[in-house]
Write a structure and sequence with these properties.
There is one protein chain. By secondary structure, this protein is an alpha+beta fold. Helices cover 20% and strands 44% of the residues. The chain has seven helices and 17 strands. The two termini are 62 Å apart.
Length: 348
C-alpha cells in the first residue's frame, strides 16, 4: 500500500512545458471583468437657491418664489472614452496590444479582458478617479449679530463694509464665546456637505403668505372682490459653490447667502372711501370692507445679501462682516463665519 502511494506521488510531478506550449496556455490566466462607470460619467446636479425678495406674478395667480430651472450639471465629469484611454495608457499599456486582450464600452460599463493583476490595477485607477471626483467638503455657516464696537475690540480693528478675512481657530473661539453670552447674537447655525464643483443651497426659514391685491368684479349692481395672494421668503438662504484644488486641498467658495427679515406687514385700504382711512398695521388678512373698499397687505422686507468668493485651507475659517447702516435702530453688525473641512471621497 505504501509503495503504491509513493508511485502515485511520483507520477503526479508536473513535467517541463516548452515555451510555445506555455504561451498557448496563457489564455487560461486571463479574466473578464465589468467595471460600472456610470457614477463617473453621470453628472451631479446643481441645486441653486432662489432669488429672495417680494415676488409678484403678472398672470393673476398666486405669487410664489421661483427656484432657478437652469440645473447645470456639476461635478468633475469623466467621458467614458476618456476612462478607456486612461486605462490603456496607464495600466500595462503593452498588454492591451495583445489581440487576445480587449477593453470595450458596453451599456455604460467597461468590459475588459486581461490578466487578473492588470484588471486589479485598472480597478484601483478607477477608484482614484472616484476619489478625485467625489471629494467633498463639510461647510459650517454661522450668522451672528454683534455690536460693532465689541466686534472691533475682539478682532482688533474696525471692519469695513463687506470686508472678509481668513481667521484662526483662536479668534473663532473668542467670537463664539462672546456670542454665547448675548441672547440676540446667534441668528442661525447650519452644517451641510457638498461635492467638488457642485452648487448647492439650503433654506432655513418660512414662506409668509399675504394679500397683495384684490380682483374686483361688478355684476348686477353688486361689487365683489376676491383676494389675490402672494408670498415672500423669510429666513436664512445659503447658496454655495465649491471647488477643491487637487494639489493643495485649498477650497474656493463662491458664497451667495441672503438673510431676509419681515420688518412689518401694513394694511392698506383701496377703493371706496379708502382715501379717508389711515394706514394700519397688524396681522389681519385682507378681504372685502364696507363702503366698497378692500384691504391689501404691504410687507416691508429687510434683505442682507453677501456675494463674495473666499479661498480657505481645510479646517480653517473665514469671516465676512456687513456693518450696520448709519441711522438704523441697532448698531449691530452682521457677521458670517464659514468653516470648511474636506471630507474625502463622499458617498455615491
Amino acid at each position: 500500500m505504501g509503495k503504491n502511494l509513493l508511485l502515485l506521488l511520483t507520477v503526479s510531478v508536473i513535467p517541463d512545458i516548452p515555451d510555445e506550449k506555455l504561451k498557448a496556455t496563457s489564455w487560461h490566466r486571463r479574466a473578464i471583468r465589468v467595471f460600472d462607470i456610470r457614477d463617473l460619467t453621470h453628472a451631479v446636479p446643481d441645486r441653486p437657491g432662489p432669488e429672495v425678495g417680494i415676488t409678484i406674478n403678472t398672470d393673476g395667480g398666486s405669487s410664489v418664489p421661483v427656484f432657478s430651472e437652469d440645473y447645470v450639471q456639476a461635478g468633475e465629469i469623466f467621458e467614458a472614452d476618456q476612462l478607456v484611454d486612461l486605462i490603456r495608457g496607464r495600466v500595462d499599456p503593452q498588454s492591451w496590444e495583445d489581440e487576445k486582450n480587449s477593453i470595450n464600452l458596453v451599456l455604460g460599463s467597461i468590459v475588459a479582458v486581461n490578466r487578473k493583476e492588470v484588471l486589479d490595477e485598472a480597478a484601483v485607477l478607477l477608484e482614484e478617479c472616484r476619489g478625485r471626483r467625489m471629494k467633498g467638503v463639510e461647510i459650517v455657516t454661522r450668522f451672528l449679530s454683534l455690536p460693532g464696537k465689541d466686534l472691533a475690540a475682539i478682532i482688533g480693528s474696525d471692519p469695513k463694509r463687506g470686508s472678509q478675512q481668513e481667521i484662526g481657530e483662536k479668534l473663532v473661539r473668542e467670537i463664539l464665546a462672546f456670542a454665547e453670552k448675548d441672547p440676540k447674537a446667534v441668528l442661525s447655525v447650519s452644517t451641510f456637505s457638498q461635492l467638488h464643483k457642485q452648487r448647492a443651497s439650503m433654506q432655513i426659514g418660512r414662506n409668509v403668505p399675504y394679500v397683495r391685491d384684490v380682483d374686483v368684479e361688478v355684476a348686477q349692481q353688486t361689487t365683489t372682490s376676491d383676494p389675490v395672494t402672494g408670498q415672500l421668503l423669510e429666513g436664512v438662504f445659503l447658496d454655495f459653490q465649491v471647488e477643491i484644488d487637487p494639489d493643495s486641498d485649498d477650497v474656493t467658495l463662491n458664497l451667495r447667502p441672503t438673510m431676509a427679515r419681515l420688518r412689518k406687514m401694513s394694511l392698506c385700504r383701496i377703493g371706496g372711501d379708502a382715501g379717508r382711512d389711515k394706514e394700519e398695521s397688524g396681522g389681519e388678512k385682507g378681504g372685502q370692507e364696507h363702503g366698497g373698499s378692500s384691504r391689501i397687505m404691504l410687507p416691508e422686507l429687510d434683505l442682507q445679501k453677501i456675494r463674495t468668493t473666499v479661498t480657505l485651507r481645510t479646517n480653517s475659517s473665514a469671516m465676512v462682516v456687513v456693518p450696520a447702516e448709519a441711522g438704523e435702530e441697532t448698531d449691530r453688525d452682521l457677521v458670517m463665519l464659514v468653516t470648511v473641512r474636506i471630507t474625502g471621497a463622499a458617498g455615491k
